[in-house]
Amino acid sequence: MSSTHIIVTKQHGYAIVQFNRPDVLNALNMKLMEEVVGALESLDKEQDVRCVILTGNEKAFAAGADIKEMADASAIEMLTRDQFARWDRIRKIKKPIIAAVSGFALGGGCELAMSCDMVVASENAKFGQPEINIGVMPGAGGTQRLTRAVGKVKAMEMVLTGRMISAEEALRWGLINKVVPVEYYLEEAKNWAREIASKPPVAVRLAKESVLKAFDTTIEGGLEFERKNFYLLFASDDQKEGMKAFGEKRKPEWKGK
Ligand code: CAA
Fold it and tell me: pTM for the whole thing?
C-alpha cells in the first residue's frame, strides 16, 4: 500500500506510516497530513493492526509544516483552510501510536511526535518549536502539548527562543521515552509495537483512552472514567482468559473480545 507522500507497510500485528518527502525534510504539507490522518483512520479499523509507528527517515522526522505552502496565505485563507483541524482527528485514533524520531522534529514535526502516545528517538534527534524565527508561533498543539509534557518554563524556553533541544535533553525533560543509537531507533519502535500487539486489544484500547482522559478532566472525573473502563473489561473474554491463565501458570491466548 503506498501513496505519494507516505509509505505504509504492515508487519505482523502493527503498521508503519513513513513520511516520504525527503527532499524537503518531510515538511508536512496538507496533502501529506491528509494522507497520514487517512492512513491512521483506516489502520485503526483493521483488526490485525494493533499498533502504529509514525516515522520519517534518519535525517528528519519532519521539519515542520510546509512553510512554502503557507508563506503567501492571508489570515482569512488560513482560517478557511483550517489545515490544522485535520490534526485533531489523530486524537480520535484508538490504537497506540509510537513516533520513531530521528533527525529534525521541528514545529509541526515536534507537534506531531507529541500527538503520538510514545516517542522513541535516535541520538541525533533534535526537537524544537522554531516558529518564532519565521514570525509565527506553534499552531498544531505546541503551546498546549509541550507545556503539559515539560512544564511552563521549559515550554516558554522552546517556544520563545525557538532553540532546538537534543534527544538527551528531550529525554531528561520528559518529552520522549527513550534514546537509542541511530541505527536502532526504528528497530526499538518495532520492538515496542510488537510488545503492545501481543497484549489484549480491548484492554489496550481502554487503557489508552483512560490515560488520555487525564488531559481533559478533573482527577475525580478521570478516576471515575478509569474505574468504569476497568469494570467494563470484566465483560471481555480476554479478562477471563488472562486471569485464568495466571492461575494455571500458562501464557494467555487473547481473542480480542
Ligand atoms: N517547509 C518547507 N520546506 C522546508 C521546511 C519546511 N518546514 N524545512 C526544510 N525545508 C526544505 C528547505 O527549503 C530545503 O529545500 P530546497 O532544497 O528546495 O531549498 C530543504 O528542505 C532542505 O532544507 P535546508 O537546506 O534548510 O537544510 P539544512 O540542513 O540546512 O537545515 C533545518 C535544516 C534547520 C531544519 C532548516 O531546514 C529549517 O530551519 N527548516 C524550517 C524549520 C521550521 O521553521 N519549522 C517550523 C515550520 S512552521 C510550523 O510547523 C507551524 C506549526 O505549528 C504546525
Answer: 0.96
